[in-house]
Specification:
Keywords: Transferase. It holds the Pfam family CoA_transf_3. GO terms for molecular function: CoA-transferase activity. It comes from Streptomyces iranensis. The protein is an alpha/beta fold and about 375 residues long. The protein folds into two domains: about 220 residues, Rossmann fold (3-Layer(aba) Sandwich); about 80 residues, formyl-coa transferase, domain 3 (2-Layer Sandwich), CATH 3.30.1540. Helices cover about 35% and strands about 15% of the residues. The protein is built from 15 helices and eleven strands. It has a six-stranded parallel beta sheet, sandwiched between helices. Strands 7-8-9 form a three-stranded antiparallel beta sheet, with helices on one face. A hairpin with a 5-residue loop joins strand 10 and strand 11. The longest helix is centred in the middle third of the chain and has 24 residues.
């Protein structure tokens, strides 16, 4: 099958999530990715379990390492460093997320490689940049805390909460992929490689979107609001007779139809609720009105009727329910990848749809590689 990145060679020194996520996306799009791992232990996430699959492999590692080859290199060993340099000088892209300065000590930083490989795209992922924050450890939880995300996540009277997935690492991986592809487009036009710098804190601040602009443009410091939205109402889960119904009413037409389905069309004409701005101002009163009406039926029944009326509504699925929904909608959310022993692993598919060069799925996440053979001098 023709792939978009079929001639691209990527050398992946990255560990854990952000970097491996970026290189997996490139691999899905056809790039040949060689993952460099520590001898004996490999990527940290090989030991991050439970959960494990039926072959006792950590599912965390599996999430971001399909379609890759792997090699075990001890970068503190001169012979392994020489092999790493050889691979880097023949690569189109190098991705690394070591602490700033370490790759320079190994002779594998951008400055030392570009002389022998001027077209190289060199992507460095750090926690807090290469300046004063260079020594700070770049763990997702820490960045969620320092970057303000935890301050807007959770109940108003509760403790700050992290998001239920390492969302900063995922954002950084996506920004890294965008930066790499942009640099490759520039190289196609000019022949010049370049350095791509990604730091987790900047990725989080950019990903805060409207919450960031509330501060930068409006001078407002957002706070925790639980499941409510600072600018839209109703936009939250509400209790029904058997559980929670999520309403995501984004305009006045949707609110009018919501009120009609609930048997309370007069609410749409009430000046307290007639516009979104008014609904946000009177969100407490509106919530009380809606809870009283929703108590008459089950959440799933309301969701079905409201969806027919083009009002965004749904129940709160667990992960199994989410995959089942995607399957029912014909989205084919998973792919099955063969292992060398004849077994297979099922993973979430790449969500990018391309009509001419779709993602490919060549191989399961690789087993832990053996160290390079050592030959004694005779």
């Amino acid at each position: 099958m023709t792939t978009a990145l079929g001639n691209l060679r990527v050398l992946d020194f990255a560990r854990v999530l952000a970097g491996p996520f970026a290189t997996m996306l490139l691999a899905d799009l056809g790039a040949t990715v060689t993952k460099v791992e520590r001898p004996g232990t490999g990527d940290d996430t090989r030991a991050w379990g439970p959960p494990h699959d039926q072959h006792d492999q950590a599912t965390y590692f599996q999430a971001v390492n399909r379609n890759k080859d792997t090699i075990a290199l001890d970068l503190s060993d001169p012979r392994d460093r020489a092999e790493a340099r050889r691979l880097a000088l023949s690569a189109d892209v190098v991705v690394e997320n070591f602490r700033p300065g370490l790759m320079a000590e190994f002779g594998l930083d951008h400055e030392q490689l570009r002389a022998g490989n001027p077209g190289l795209i060199y992507c460095s992922i750090t926690g807090f940049g290469r300046g004063p924050g260079a020594r700070l450890p770049g763990y997702d939880l820490l960045v969620q805390a320092l970057g303000g995300l935890m301050s807007i996540t959770g109940e108003p009277a509760g403790e700050p909460q992290k998001v239920g997935v390492a969302v900063v690492d995922v954002l950084a991986g996506l920004f890294a992929t965008t930066g790499i592809l942009t640099a490759l487009h520039h190289r196609t036009r000019t022949g010049e490689g370049q350095r791509v710098d990604i730091d987790l804190l900047s990725c989080l601040l950019a990903g805060l979107a409207n919450q960031a602009s509330a501060y930068t443009s409006g001078g407002v410091v957002p706070t925790r609001m639980g499941n409510q939205h600072p600018s839209i109402a109703p936009y939250e889960p509400l209790p029904c007779s058997d559980g929670e119904l999520v309403l995501a009413v984004g305009n006045d037409r949707q609110f009018t139809d919501l009120c009609r389905v609930l048997g309370a069309p007069h609410l749409a004409a009430d000046e307290r609720y007639a516009t979104n701005t008014a609904r946000v101002r009177h969100r407490g009163q509106l919530r009380t009105e809606l809870i009283s009406l929703l108590a008459a039926r089950r959440a799933e029944d309301w969701a079905e009727e409201l969806t027919r009326a083009r009002v965004p509504a749904g129940i709160v699925n667990d992960i199994a329910g989410a995959f089942a929904l995607a399957t029912d909608l014909g989205l084919a959310p998973t792919v099955e990848l063969p292992r060398a022993d004849g077994s297979a692993v099922t993973l979430c598919r790449n969500p990018i749809g391309l009509s001419a060069t779709p993602p490919v799925y060549r191989s399961a996440p690789p087993p832990l590689p053996l160290p390079l053979p050592r030959h004694r001098n005779t």
